Each structure stands twice: as structure tokens, then as C-alpha cells.
Task: structure prediction
Amino acid sequence: MDDPRSVLAAPSHPSPYAWYARLPAIAFDASIGLWVLADPALVAQALEEPALRVRPPAEPVPEALRGRPTGEVFARLVRMTDGDFHARHRPAVAAGAARLARAAVEQAAADATRDLAPRTPIDALLSAIPVQAMARLLGVAAADLDRTVAWVHDFTRGIAAGASSDALDRSDAAVAGLLAQAEGLEPALAANRIAFMQQALDATAGLIGNGIVAWQARAASLEGTAFIAHVARTDPAVHNTRRFAAQDLVLGDAPIAAGQGLVLLLANPQAKLQFGAGAHACPGERIALAIAATALRTLAELGALQRLAPPQGYRPLPNARIPVFAAA
Result:
């Protein structure tokens, strides 16, 4: 089997983990124009390094989004900001996640799975379940759940690199609908209400999908979250994250110049960094695990898992590992 072409192609590779283990601690990959950090200790250091930002310092909002409603929301996402804005608003976002009781999360995930599974193809189902579950937890009315899921997908496509003009227009329309659901909230909270659903999309879809792959391989018990927590360590949904140098610095023995970008490898079972660390650690880890575990258990109860063939491959995403299935 050929090795992945780069760390950005690795999440969609059939088995990237042995290749990851052979990567140097830190090296510049000219093919993608980015530093790649593979050593867990260096990755942990980089996640805590204040000189490394989640966005290029010269472009806090992608150029294509500037002046658009999608760009206004993007500028208020705590996961895409640093400095004073992030410090002021992240506590409220984290508190919002902390208020969601496990029983409520599991009920929302079970209800979403039972609603969607009979009428949604499996590959769309992986992404729809976590978004609908979060929408339920945020109080979206039953009649609005389908359009909310569609809006979150449109917003996600709109903020993706290289989004087409049509995707940007659809994202702007989606933002209008999603912000209307948050009427009365101050702008930062309204934007991050969208982020609760958007961040659940790929990351939790990957957890559910990779959980199915692991269940197919071992037919292990799906009770509780221990199974999906094991999957999150050994075949995680998010394989890497980006950072950008706001000033010259040295990591390991590598001189990083201001403005350069880095890819931090998170897919290391020993590092326990699959949900990040530092100021941008994911506040929804327990929520994602509970949604995925409940979705898998409910799909098994419905007999849906037993009807699935093994995956045909993985979605061509640069940081998320989400299998592609076809019904048997």
C-alpha cells in the first residue's frame, strides 16, 4: 500500500497510522507549504504556544468571506479567534456546553437517530445525526429540524477553503435563517450557537463512522461511552489542526518564521490530543462522545448497523476521517 501523499491526504488513506509513526518530530513539507509537527510533546507545546494562532495574522477572516454575512459570523467564532475576543467570549461558550446534561444529550441523539435513520442514506446520516441532536438541545422546533440541518451544512460548505460563489450565497442565506433562531442573543453568542451545530458535523460524523468500522471489525459491545472513547483514541475523527505563527519562534530545533503555517498531528493514541488542548481545546468532547455512542447503540437497536457493508473508503477531507459506506 502506498504511503499518503502528505499529512493533509492522510485522513482519507486506508491506514495512515504506521506512516504517522515514521514522521519526523517536525519538518517542513514543501509540497503543501506547511510545517508538520508529529511529535506529541511538540504538538502539545504548540497547542499552548501564544505566538501560534488559529488564523493567519494578516487574514483573521478569509478574504472570500469579508463583507458577507457568513464572514460576520466567522469573525465571532471563538474557535477561529485569539486574543481579547477569544478570552472574553470563550468562557460563555464553554459554560453553555457544560450546561448540557448527559441524559439530555443522549435523549437528543436517540431521538435524532430514530427520526433520521429510516429516511436518510447512511453517508448523509453520519453528518445529519449530530447536527440534529445539537439542534434539539438548542431548542429548535421539530418542524424546523430538517431545514436547520440543511442550513448548517450550507454554512459549513461556505466557510470551507475554495468555496464557490454559489456555496457562499447559500451560506449567507443559511446564516440568516440560523441567526433568526437566535433572536435576542448578543452577536457573539448567536454566532457560537451556530458553531455548536457546525462543529458537531464532521467531528462527530467521524466518530460515528469510525465507530461503525470498529464495530464491524470486532462486534464489540456498544453500551456506554467506553467503546467510542477507545475509537476516538485509536481511529480518531480529527487527525490534524492548523496554526499560524504571529512572530518568529523556535519549536524543537526548527526556526518558524512569522506568517508560516503549521499542521499539528492529533492522531496519536498516546498523546490524548484528539480533542485539542490549550485555549482552543474542544469544550464539547463529552457531548460528541455521548452523541456518537448513543447514535451507534440506537442504530444497532434499529438493525441498521447489521445491514451495512464495510466502508468503500474515506471522504477526501484534509483533517477529518469519515468513512464512506454503501448499504449491503
